[in-house]
Amino acid sequence: MSEQSRRRSPKPYRKPRKDPVRILAFEALRAVDERGAYANLVLPPLLKKARENGDFDGRDAALATELVYGTLRRQGTYDAIIAACIDRPLREVDPPVLDVLALGAHQLLGTRIPTHAAVSASVELARVVLGDGRAKFVNAVLRKISQDELDTWVQRVAPPYEDDAEDHLAVVHSHPRWIVSALWDALGGGRAGIEDLLEADNERPEVTLVARPGRATPGELVDLLGEESVLPGRWSPYAVRLAEGGEPGAIEAVREGRAGVQDEGSQLVALALAAAPLEGPDRRWLDGCAGPGGKAALLAALAAERGAALLASEKQPHRARLVGRALAGNPGPYQVVAADGTRPPWREGVFDRVLVDVPCSGLGALRRRPEARWRRRPEDLDGFAPLQRGLLREAMRAVRVGGVVGYATCSPHLAETRVVVDDVLRGRGGPAVSAEWIDARPLMPGVPALGDGPDVQLWPHLHGTDAMYLALLRRTA
Fold this sequence. Notes:
Number of strands: 12
Number of helices: 21
Oligomer: single chain
Helix content: 40-55%
Radius of gyration: 25 Å
Strand content: 5-15%
Low-confidence stretches: none
Structural class: alpha/beta
């Protein structure tokens, strides 16, 4: 064969290299996109299976987790950058291709993975899951992205702040514009505060445990895990934080139900309700929206210390079963029922303390469920509104005169917080409720920046918690 013929001979075909870490990350993103799954639910079983098959070690699991959550959190920014690198509208790119491109963009712009490794690994992934033809497209786009760093790209694709502040923040901090606007309205203040909040939404949240009173103590968890692995809670006397993340399910106290995974904001809400001043009997407590059981388990433990009993109600039977598992082994009396809190089976005025942590948009937990920001729509709030008001009205009917109701939600959106409480108290859309506000701020001792009261809004950037809201009300007639 001549030298010229040899030059023209095609290279032998090379099978793509299968990278189990990136394939798993891609599978998780497809589940989120195709099935509407949540990463915090779909990722753990994938990781467990990979470990059992011997495909993963600890560092592989950490990388896969970072790829999935980092890509979801920065999806809006990466979409804008990808759109600037292609010659067609983003909506015309197949979703699986977009997932591979977003994974590649995150490796290039959001991690310390070297450029050549990020591009080559993403192209190999594309060859495995998309085929060689579309892998060439992925390669061309990622090479364009790799030419600049994240800050340079953001300056190029985001409109100037002076021209459109909300759109600028939406691109820079990877939130839909309507969420930026809603959070800014709830937070108030200038540019610095909203930027701090949006950036906090994009940070990996700590894993926080609660030591359930009467069953475990924070000191026991520290002894069990070691001081180098555990940090004290910031605000809750029952909280500890895992310094390096870790797997809570591997902790003996968690497996036994004596401790649980619970954000400190949720702990503060339950503790404030339990600490609210009360005249008369304090024997019957109700958690009217108990699923999946975290607050109910803490309330049941607190109630048991006072000789009180908790009724935990959850509408969905499968979630009621989760509540039952969370409360199993509680030292005091409790009962779990599957019941609709807007049409409750209990009589009026029989409870001394009532908590309703109502279903909501979940905008306060975007750190934990980053995909929710892309899934929610403004009109979703209209669907939650009647349910939230109905649950609060029935909670006010369930409590006795002089008793306390806590209205809580994991959202800072004004339409789900203060507006709901005001509407119920003033009789908008239903009978007026006779109640007075209780200042919740003194019931969260040591927690700063709680606003003007009497209700409380927690914030990720100020308190390191989910953006939980709490209003405390005392029934007066």
